[in-house]
Amino acid sequence: MSSSERFDCHYCKDSLLGKKYTMKEDTQYCTKCYENLFANCCEACSLPIGCNFKDLSYKDHHWHEQCFKCAKCSRSLVEKAFAAKEDLLLCTECYAHDYSSKCNTCKKTIMPGSRKMEYKGNSWHETCFLCHRCQQPIGTKSFIPKDSGYFCVPCFEKQFAYQCCACKKAITTGGVTYQDKPWHRECFLCIGCRKQLSGQRFTSRENYPYCLECFSNLYAKKCVGCTKSISSLAGAKYISFEERQWHSECFSCMQCSVSLVGRGFLTQRDDILCTDCGREK
């Protein structure tokens, strides 16, 4: 046989005619060379996984088919669900017994791969995490804890939340209390200009809330001197005389404009005068 007709192992050069061989990247190897060069070692028995065996792999680790077993009960994991814990492979039953959490409602094990809910260190089967009021699964919806129970938002609002006396809708966060009645912050408005009063100084008249500006414009006394409102709520000082009022800075002699605050004065019809100007009259 000529050299051009030979069919040899690429590594050891032994003839492969009539023998088993394995191809790798279009190159032929005898089984012995292939196993020495390329076979993976089994994680369980440490022996090479030869050409005559199935090579089962998980996360860059390899096993003979007969070695692919649960590390605790030794049952085969071939074509079965399994879980990994600290580099050990466990069947779902062993993993659940040793590591899975228990449902806070039914007290049964939450099996690996099943849907569950977790909140503040507690776990539930998804079908066991129920609204305390309507007894329907909460699932991925928002919920609110109250005492020892959990409530879906609609049930919490019906059972516990105050209702805004303006819009009649539930107040779930924050809110304002005025005259022992609850309001949303955005609903607590000046009766005059409809400006939001939450966090602002305000007053009331006949049980209606007013911002200081509206109250001053509607009800405050007017200064005789400048005709503008005098609002004691804003801290303004004023002088009152015979049912007339003046801002302190406006209480001055009508003739010479000297301030009359803390000084004697005279009246001439509707005018007020300092004593000097009054004597001249």
Automatic annotation (TrEMBL):
Family matches, as Pfam families: LIM (PF00412), LIM_FHL2-3_N (PF25076)
DNA-binding keyword on record: no
The cross-references to PANTHER family, in alphabetical order and at most eight, read: FOUR AND A HALF LIM DOMAINS PROTEIN, FOUR AND A HALF LIM DOMAINS PROTEIN 5
Q: List each copy of the LIM zinc-binding domain by range.
A: 40-100, 101-162, 221-281
Q: Which Gene3D superfamilies match?
A: Cysteine Rich Protein
Write the record's keywords in alphabetical order, separated by commas.
LIM domain, Metal-binding, Nucleus, Repeat, Zinc, Zinc-finger
What domain of life does the native source organism fall in?
Eukaryota
Q: Tell me the name of the encoding gene.
A: FHL2_2
The UniProt GO MF terms for this protein read: transcription coregulator activity; zinc ion binding
Q: Tell me the protein's name.
A: Four and a half LIM domains protein 2
SUPFAM superfamilies the UniProt entry points to: Glucocorticoid receptor-like (DNA-binding domain)
Localization: Nucleus
One term under GO cellular component: Z disc
